[in-house]
């Protein structure tokens, strides 16, 4: 007979698992919930947040995905802003906090695997420019495109006015984004995002990207 953790590892298609999968694997036990606590104590599982778990190091098949966990911890949400820009190589330094946008309230979660922050974005702005990050053949995470991650980062900076020189300075000095590196961004998509956001700060981005492309 398989042990509880063996049952879970056999059924899971991902390192990131939820309570429903866990209970489903343990349904043959008379008290499935009572089986989970010893698994946590033995570090067979790590509780990221109530109802969300990853496997302990002795049972994991691959590193868990912070992006997948970000989608699971609070939703609807997608990974964006500084974390996504770093993932795309537009910010030179690694970003430790997983930054996300959501249609829900602003939230911050400190977990055993890291910090996850969520900032509200209206649904009309939320829908445009999203992509699926492939983690494995069966698992993916919702993430902002590079263009949308840049727009969300700018959107959060409420102190920025509609001055293009001020915005360029913030991108270069505060985020250390090489303005020439944004030449890879898609003008058509940034135009679509700017149209959806209808905000003065975001309206500046198409001009900045077009200027960068002229310098190719």
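^ Assign residues to that structure.
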């Amino acid at each position: 007979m398989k042990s509880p953790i063996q049952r879970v590892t056999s059924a899971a298609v991902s390192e990131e698992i939820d309570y429903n999968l866990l209970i489903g694997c343990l349904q043959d036990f008379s008290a499935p919930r009572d089986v989970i606590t010893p698994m946590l104590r033995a570090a067979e599982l790590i509780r990221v947040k109530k109802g969300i778990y990853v496997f302990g190091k002795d049972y994991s098949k691959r590193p868990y995905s912070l992006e997948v966990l970000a989608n699971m911890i609070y939703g609807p949400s997608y990974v964006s802003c500084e974390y996504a820009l770093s993932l795309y190589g537009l910010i030179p330094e690694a970003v430790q906090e997983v930054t996300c946008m959501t249609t829900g309230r602003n939230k911050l979660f400190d977990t055993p695997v890291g910090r996850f922050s969520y900032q509200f974005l209206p649904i009309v702005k939320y829908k445009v420019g999203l992509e699926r990050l492939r983690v494995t053949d069966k698992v993916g995470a919702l993430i902002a495109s590079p263009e949308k991650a840049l727009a969300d980062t700018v959107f959060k900076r409420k102190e920025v006015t509609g001055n293009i020189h001020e915005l360029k300075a913030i991108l270069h000095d505060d985020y250390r984004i090489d303005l020439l590196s944004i030449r890879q961004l898609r003008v058509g998509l940034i135009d679509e995002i700017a149209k959806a956001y209808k905000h003065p700060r975001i309206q500046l981005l198409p001009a900045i990207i077009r200027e960068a492309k002229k310098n190719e």
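The radius of gyration is 20 Å.
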